[in-house]
Request: fold
Amino acid sequence: MDRSILDGYDPQSFYCEMLRGAASGVIRERLSGLSIDALKERAAAANAELYNLGITFTIYSDAQTIDRILPFDVLPRILSAEEWRHIERGIIQRITAINLLLDDVYHDQHLLSDGVVPAELILGNRNYRPLMRAIDLPHKAYVNICGTDIVRDERGTFLVLEDNARTPSGVSYVVENRHMMLRAFPDLLDDISLRAIDNYGAKLIAALQEVAPPGVADPRIVLLSPGTYNSAYFEHVFLAREMGVPLVEGSDLLVEDDRVFMRTTGGLSRVDVIYRRINDDYLDPEAFVAESMLGVPGLMRAYRAGNLALANAVGTGVADDKAVYAYMPRIIRYYLDEDPILPSVETHICREPKALRYTLDRLAELVVKPVGEAGGYGITVGPGASLQELDECRAKLVADPANYISQPCVNLSVAPTLVDGRIEPRHVDLRPFAVTGSSTWVLPGGLTRVALRRGSLVVNSSQGGGSKDTWVVE
Amino acid sequence: MSDVLLARYADCIFWLARYVERAENLARILDVNETFSRDSRGGQNWRSIVQLNSDEERFFATHPSATAQSVVKFYVIDGANPTSIVSAIRYARENARTLRPLISTEMWVQLNVFYNRLVELGEGDLAPGRLAALFATIKEACQTHTGITDGTFFRDQGWYFYQLGRYIERADQTTRLLDIKYHLLLPSPSDVGSPTDVSQWNALLRSAAGYHAYRRLHTASTTPARVAGFLLLNQAFPRSLHHCVREAGRLLGEVKSRYLLRHGNDAAEELDRLRSVLGTLDISAILSEGLHEFLDLMQQQLSAITRDLSIAFFGYSPEASQAQTVTPQ
Reply:
């Protein structure tokens, strides 16, 4: 006997995106008309298609398999127009502040002389790049592409968990998830008006043209990727195709007379703007890590000479550092004279002795994160950690306190998710993507990531998370 | 920036085309051998396929003899054998993965699905009763790829390098097929004209998908010379050496002029020379000089042309292209 799919679904004390979200009424009705077997069938078809299409993600720790799909959950996550407006305003405010911060950090550094943040936090930051102090950028746009991670707590308040201002990824899944839903559930979407997300490529290329070296009539844009074995290769392909630009690797480019060229069938062809999906460290063996095989020797020379635009700019890691994150409310007030629209999670910076003591005293209740990592690695989630894990965490903190921050465990919101043939609540977050050229535009919605293991709060794709289609209702 | 093509992409596209063409040719040869070559020569027929790809050393290192089972396994499902069908499609798919920004999603998906199906094949799928169906499936998948490419590949530079790869591989395959089979089948005086003899030559034509075309042209007789002449010199037969060389030359000229590519004059001249030789020779002259020597020379020319294309367009240095083997990475 087919059961209604939301029978027995219990989000407990967590905020449920489906049951309490402002816009989910219509969908709940339609879903209740579906049997769980029908849902399972459609979900299986959708996942099979992911393999065929090669919409894949590589997990670093699994040396054998190269192609793994990012699990897609067929139950969408829904935001109302109002909820989205609030998030959008908050993100634009944040990106504006971040770009002002970076422009200041790489010019007169007023925020240091005014004591807004400790100088050591910026100048001692491993992502601070002194060579950027000589460079002026068009529109002072350092972070052209930003992915901000947002969560909702048990009261339904949206909080910023972190910014990703270096090489944020995931936007390709946003678009592919929508296509997947359209293929698997066209009936669910009938007569519902959703904010469109198909114009990301157009918006991105427009922004890249805006930040091209001044005086160049028809800027030639490329996307620089580490290549097919990189975990995000599918996304690099997606972006290159959406923008209609060549997808290049380091070996395709060379620098001559402080200008960048690419190797084509017709000889060398000039390049003006590079959307680079390679970390600063590996970008230019002449300027940074000498052993890097991924970068282009001399790229920084072209950059400094004003003959090249890079998106994102070099040195943006200073702004998405988790310790600097703790100061963001202060930073927003300093540059914009406004209160933050989106609050941050309470953060304790362990380089400060008081914060270190606070953290060590409450290790089992807090989440401890290294300041410079990405992908969710190196995090200890106190509640649920074993005694051994807590001891290891304590040892790391004591050995290198400046490398860590701690935060209370946020009771992340949940959304109904199809797991082993049943609908169960699973924690979700949201990563909207913001594109900045002369101004900032935010893609409606963003990537909803879901932690597929029961009780897990870790949503990162590199550690077994999945994703859902994100709807912003008009 | 649709008027420029990355040198590395041109390389990948060229070899993508070659690998799929190679797989299709091999499937066809194995299929014909399986169906039409059952005769007193037995194992000789299967051994000749190993010789066609110059694989004797590697094959006999791990297989005691060339039988239907061992040869089919070696050339269809053996992933450790770089000249097998599964390996060719693997290389094709990897090239396609690099080319994803350039090719249609359908093109990628089809190759991806095809490869995944090949990888799942086991010895059970190679049982005598199932081989014909398997070869048909493989050929169809290759032809589907060709159809999708024809229907969706944007007609800019990349498409030209794809066609060049296809025609050069096809030309090479025809010369190899003829080289091996002709000498295997060379009749003793008492055999000439006998039904057994004729069926073997027909099988050769089928291997090259030329049997029915040949029948329309030479209704009366099947002689070794006519068959060899058809496969090498006939301009209308799409797999003939002459046809492939002529098309390759035409395409190279077109891509150079349309996209203002200054390099590649060496390759263009060589193709032109080759075409005019093939246009003036007749088969009896070739046979009297020595067919094997002629085919050997043709293969060397095709190899030299590939080398020159690699230097001119794919970004290879002269030293690197010297080292380039038939199966680059």
User: Anything to note?
Assistant: Chain B has 16 helices and no strands. The interface with chain A takes residues 1-2, 4-8, 10, 94, 97-98, 100-101, 105, 108-109, 112-113, 116, 157, 161, 259-263, 313-315 of chain B (CB under 8 Å).
